[in-house]
Write a structure and sequence with these properties.
It contains 3 helices and no strands. The protein has about 100 residues and is mostly helical.
């Protein structure tokens, strides 16, 4: 099973109540804007809906043939880096296509 990565916005965060941070020292950006500002329920819903609208919902399957040594090397690399072979192949394809 592929290791899941959640880059960008997690739609579940729109429904999670934030803990009280009033006693925690606030972090400020260079222009002194509070980066921990609370989002309104409408903003949370909008962010979640935008994420759901733009994500791909079903993956396509592809069968590939590789040499046994390539397969073994890929499997070893994935274990060493704590990821899946599928993620490595997807990253390689994405990198190739972006050139």
């Amino acid at each position: 099973m592929a290791k899941k990565t959640f880059k960008g916005i997690n739609p579940a965060e729109a429904f999670i109540t934030k803990k009280d941070t009033s006693t925690v020292k606030e972090t400020k950006t260079k222009d002194k804007k509070d980066i921990n500002k609370e989002l309104s329920e409408e903003e949370k819903e909008r962010i979640a809906m935008e994420y759901l609208k733009n994500r791909e919902t079903k993956s396509k399957r592809v069968n590939i043939l590789v040499k046994p040594s390539t397969y073994d090397n890929l499997q070893e690399y994935a274990k060493e880096n704590g990821t899946s072979m599928n993620d490595i192949i997807n990253q390689a394809i994405k990198s190739f296509l972006s050139k």
